[in-house]
Amino acid sequence: MNKKSFLAQIMRIYKIFLIIYFPAFFLLLVVGIISWRTNIPIMNFTRDPLGIMNAPFYIGILSNLGILFWAAGSAICFFSAAIITYINPKSQAFYFLLFGGIITTVLLYDDFFQFHERVFPKYLNTSESQVFIIYFLMILAYLIFFRKKIMATDFLVLGMALLGFTISATIDEVFVNHFRGKFLVEDGFKFLSIISWTTYYTRVGITEIKYHLKTN
């Protein structure tokens, strides 16, 4: 590789470097400052939780797998939306997948950082029920606005996901006192719902990309 081709490559991808590495370095800086100001060991921010707690590898395995499916669903939505808008910028499918990706990302972060269980109640004085209502209204607005688009897809898969989330949230709210098998039922429905959610958007993304490639 000669000097000119090396410089040409830098000129082509410098924006990518800024988009990827600037937020990453900023996050590392913030974590370092917080650790320094609060005397919290830096490893509490950087190391794997299981490593810090010296816990068995299977602790939270179902939750971790759920996070992976959330992340996959979010990436699929955004990637599919990006391809579709490149083919046809005026397509409604772009907005359907874009906002689907945004909702998926919100639910991903909520599940990963336990916003509704710990962050909002402890730091923002917002109850878990209030957070559930906000998420419910967000998803309801999405379903109403894109109802025609949804009805043209395999909506039963999405319906199964929403039903599972509803059952899981109901068990969490109603059965405060634990019964035998509560967490298996509650978290099991949640896990199956995440899989259904990601499966739905995967099918929609593939179908829409194929359709736009054929018609444009």
Structure in words:
This protein is mainly α and 216 residues long. It has two domains: 1-47, no CATH class; 56-215. It is 83% helix and 0% strand. It has ten helices and no strands. It has helices spanning 3-38, 43-46, 49-53, 61-87, 92-113, 115-123, 128-145, 147-151, 155-174, 182-215. It is flat. The relative contact order is 0.10. The mean pLDDT is 90.
Strand-helix topology:
Elements: H1 3-38, H2 43-46, H3 49-53, H4 61-87, H5 92-113, H6 115-123, H7 128-145, H8 147-151, H9 155-174, H10 182-215
Helix pairs in contact: 4-5, 4-10, 5-6, 5-7, 6-7, 9-10
Q: Runs with pLDDT <50, length 5+?
A: none
Give the total of beta strands: 0
* Class per helix and strand makeup: mainly alpha
Largest sheet: none
Hey, roughly how much beta strand do the residues contain? under 5%
List its traits.
216 residues, mainly alpha, 83% helix, flat
What's this entry about, in short?
The chain has 216 residues and is mainly α. The chain is 83% helix and 0% strand. Helix 4 (61-87) packs parallel to helix 10 (182-215).
